[in-house]
Prior knowledge:
This protein is an alpha+beta fold and about 260 residues long. It has a domain at about 120-260: Glutaredoxin. Helices cover about 20% and strands about 20% of the residues. Strands 4-3-7-6-5-10-11 form a seven-stranded mixed β-sheet. A hairpin with a 5-residue loop joins strand 1 and strand 2 (about 15). The longest helix has 12 residues, at about 150-160. The protein is globular, with a radius of gyration of 60 Å. It starts with 7 loop residues before the first strand and ends with a helix. Mean pLDDT is about 75; it is low at about 1-15, about 20-30 and about 85-105.
Amino acid sequence: xxxxxxxxxxxxxxxxxxxxxxxxxxxxxxxxxxxxxxxxxxxxxxxxxxxxxxxxxxxxxxxxxxxxxxxxxxxxxxxxxxxxxxxxxxxxxxxxxxxxxxxxxxxxxxxxxxxxxxxxxxxxxxxxxxxxxxxxxxxxxxxxxxxxxxxxxxxxxxxxxxxxxxxxxxxxxxxxxxxxxxxxxxxxxxxxxxxxxxxxxxxxxxxxxxxxxxxxxxxxxxxxxxxxxxxxxxxxxxxxxxxxxxxxxxxxxxxxxxxxx
Length: 261
């Protein structure tokens, strides 16, 4: 029989049991633990094959715009209602200086017509009206522009014949679209003794039919057609000169003016 283990009694009455050394069996036989087999390393996981990229989708072809529909040709009845194809006859306006209008050199006032009324400023800024000329014969000569060759020659010719016009009792008045300041310089430069009226909006020129379409070097434009009108004391146009050629023109006007007296 196995010997009993000796027990020692400690102070206080408690029994202390000696501890076994680790690895000893209960019967005192030493048991060796068998060595553990080494654990196998886990096989490395295979990497997943890369996924193929999806092929890009093709863009849809742009849709073609629908061709615009053609408008149906107007019927003859509709054209008749709208007055298409009919020639319109412009209404004849009374001669006045109220508003400018386009004319041709052949249109406008003629001999025997009543002279249009007007109210314009002269070279000094003073207003001259047709009422101020009532009972007096006068010459209205229209010219394109101050201090240009043809206009200067014409103005100086009227200047040189001023005494003859005064003796015939006829007042000379020049008219152009130039400003009053331009008239003042032009008058002073050539010592012109007569009045120059400023007609910047071509109202009086249009009333007399001298603001018209002109041609120069193949270009069409609106401008003053050089013209002269002799008005009697009763306010009726006695003589008309259109498309004036400057040379000897003043002599013809002077001769007509002398016949009024």
